[in-house]
Amino acid sequence: MDQFTQLTVDALTLGSVYALIALGYTLIYGVLKLLNFAHGDVFMVGSFIGFGVLQLLGGTDNPVVPVWALLTIVTFAAMAGCAALGVAIERFAYRPLRDAPRIAPLISALGVSFFLANSMQLLFGADPRNYNTFDLSNGALYLRGIDLGNVRVPLLRIITIVAAFVLMVMLWFLVNRTRTGKAMRATSFDREAAAMMGIDIDRVIVFTFVLGSALAGAAGVLFAVRVPTTVSIGFVAGLKGFTAAVIGGIGSIPGAMAGGLILGFAESYTQGYVSTKWSDLVVFSILIAFMIFRPQGLLGRPDISKV
Amino acid sequence: MKKAIGLALAVLATSVVAASAQGAQKGSSAIAAGVNCKGTMKIAFLTPLTGGAGFLGNEQGSWAKYAVKTLAPAMHLKIQLVMGDTPVEQGAAVAQTLAQKYVGDPKVVGIIGPSTSGAVVAATQTFFQAGLAHISPSATKTDLTKRENGKLEGTPAFFRDVPGDYIQGPTDANYMIKTLHVKKVVIMDFQEPYSTGLAAAVERTLKAGGVSTSRLSASNTTTDYSAFVTKVPNDADIVFFPTQKPGDAQTFAQQLLEQGKKAKVFGGDGSNGPGQFKAPGSYVSNFAPDITGIKADAKIIAGWKKDNPKSEVGSFGPPSYGAVQIMLTAIKRACAADHGVIKARHDVLRQMKKVKISNWILGGKFAFSTKSNDPLNAKFYIFKIQQDGSYKLVG
To answer: Nearest to residue B42, comparing CAs of B93, B112, B97?
Structure first.
């Protein structure tokens, strides 16, 4: 039972980060029908921005603000930095190709991905960056928490899970209950018709990139507070986020959340109950199974072609 | 949507196929015919400069550059050092592609590296076919130089100036048995040649010593080890963690504490990174002692520090200095034997085994074993990580 509880906590932590990345893929696909393969690298940049801001605030050895403020500032700084990066990517890499054949922006996305990874490498080197959150308050974020039977859920995991879910709820509210969200949904449904209704399409697209990239930035920090980050981390994270988005139904916001969690649970339980060697095999087998039996994903809508 | 995903997968698949095809070209037997020893010759260094083991390659590169800068003029050689990046995350294809590139360059007369065992396995046949000697300052997998389970992965062109895992595995395991008196050990591997080989060597000795062992296996791209830590029994004494990314050993140690497990992490030479793996009470082994304690090295260290003022002396750099010293000595000997013109790369390869160095950077003298292309009488050292994160030699 203890192992089940521990694996469930692991799954929720991992799944919530995957879900945040998947949301970025799904938002951008929903509005632009573009698979933004640079998204994983935006996530990586977010983790680096967080690291930089953390150092500016004294690092974990000697922070100049309380721990809660430190984590909040670092997360919001990464979100803001990634949002700006998202705007730049959209403006320079995707907007000029908006009316080009679909392969063009896809290749551009791969190019942006390599550009970001290599630029970061040139600027900051190859060394892993460790937030060293264990050093904060003498390990309190790891050693204190809530006890579930014999399993302790450490504070840092609670913070990660809660922060991810708060962001997801805020996103859901924004998309479903605000005027801007309505414009996003209209653009996603039919871009030309939305433009004819007076919606500023460019603005909606830029806002979508701001949202998606900010979520990637937050995910980058929530990931890197627990494990070291490197400039090469974006590829694997992006691949997992993309898989989660496809499983959930790319273009569907609740689908991306569900896909991320499914991936987290599949990975964690496979490692715990089957074999640690098999987790990636199981995860990508789930992706293949979805592609064959339910290509629209869990909560996505099937493509209907007018004949 | 299906079309878009199909298109995306097609683009990814094409990239992978293209990369694979590039890496799978047949080895050339081109020889650098008639390289004048008075002209500029090249030696290439294959090491991970980027990725999770990038710290290792950068440290090794800085020592190799310093060795070329100081030793080549003293031997009246003009040597250009070229660096090739082999990130551990990208597997074998990169090393194979680079091997082709250097074999194709007639000015290249010797190779340092590859630094990691997996990359050596990928590149050594290509170097051997071209008659190019290559010497690794850190690849420790046993079957690169000695037959193990009926298999020999290395070629006669491969040398190393550090001992293999057939020494590291028993050294680490015996320390656990005799000094730490362990009863239960969990052994991880990362599904790549270095870690599986070392994990097997440790496991064999532990089992022979009556220690209860269990095995976990993670992919080389794993970043979060929570689920693995969950599988570590509460009464396990040690988790043997032969990663090539010290930051991951730190993460694992922290996650053990997070889950209230008492086991300590014991890393191999790949985990040795004082800036990154600094969990107090953990252990690491390495093929090099702390050379700051060797008086004869004071001048070398001072010179290297002048060129690298922000860096500390680590364990991976000095063997790279030594590997360059061996290679330059072999080139010098080949030049002398060929009367000032290296007629073929084989001529350098033939001289490698004959190299002997009196003031060896790791202490004492250096010579190759007569039985394998390994150093004679080399050993591994064990360090315990202190409260301040420093490494203390304990075995």
So the answer is: B112
On chain A, the residues whose CB falls within 8 A of the CB of B232 are none
pTM for the structure as a whole: 0.75
- How far CA B45 is from CA of A90, B61, B306, B328, in Å, comes to 39, 8, 22, 13
Give ranges for CATH 3.40.50.2300 in chain B: 35-163+294-364, 166-286+381-393
B32: its two tokens: 């650098």
Question: Is A14 buried (19+), middle (13-18) or exposed (0-12) by CB count in 10 A?
Answer: buried
Residue to substitute from A13, A135, A230, interface B, most B β-carbons within 10 A: A230
Burial tier of A64 (Cβ tally within 10 Å: 0-12, 13-18, 19+): exposed
Spatial separation of the C-alpha atoms in residues B305 and B316, rounded to whole Å: 15
Q: Summarize the confidence of residues A22-41 as an average pLDDT.
A: 90
Between CA B342 and CA B352 the distance in angstroms is 14
- Quote the mean pLDDT of chain B: 87
Residues 269-288 of B with CB under 8 A from A: 275-276
pLDDT tens column, B350-360: 999 999 999 89
Q: What is the pLDDT of residue B366?
A: 93
Name the nearest CA neighbour of B375 among B341, B325, B305.
B325
A29 CB within 8 Å of a chain B CB: yes
Question: Of B194, B168, B141, whose CA–CA distance to B266 is shortest?
Answer: B168
CB-CB under 8 Å, A291 with B5: yes
pLDDT value for B126: 94
> What three-state secondary structure class fits B294?
coil
pLDDT, tens digit, 9 for 90 and up, residues A243-255: 999 999 888 888 9
Q: Encode pLDDT of A140-158 as tens digits.
A: 888 888 888 878 888 889 9
CATH superfamily of B166-286+381-393: Response regulator (3.40.50.2300)
Domain B35-163+294-364 carries which CATH code? 3.40.50.2300
- Mean pLDDT check: name the lowest of A46-60, A272-286, B131-145: A272-286
Question: What's the CA gap between A174 and A168, in Å, rounded?
Answer: 10
Beta bridge mates, B189: B217
The number of CA neighbours under 13 Å toward the Cβ of B8 is 20
Residues 83-142 of A with CB under 8 A from B: 102-103, 106-107, 110, 121, 125-128, 130, 134, 139, 142
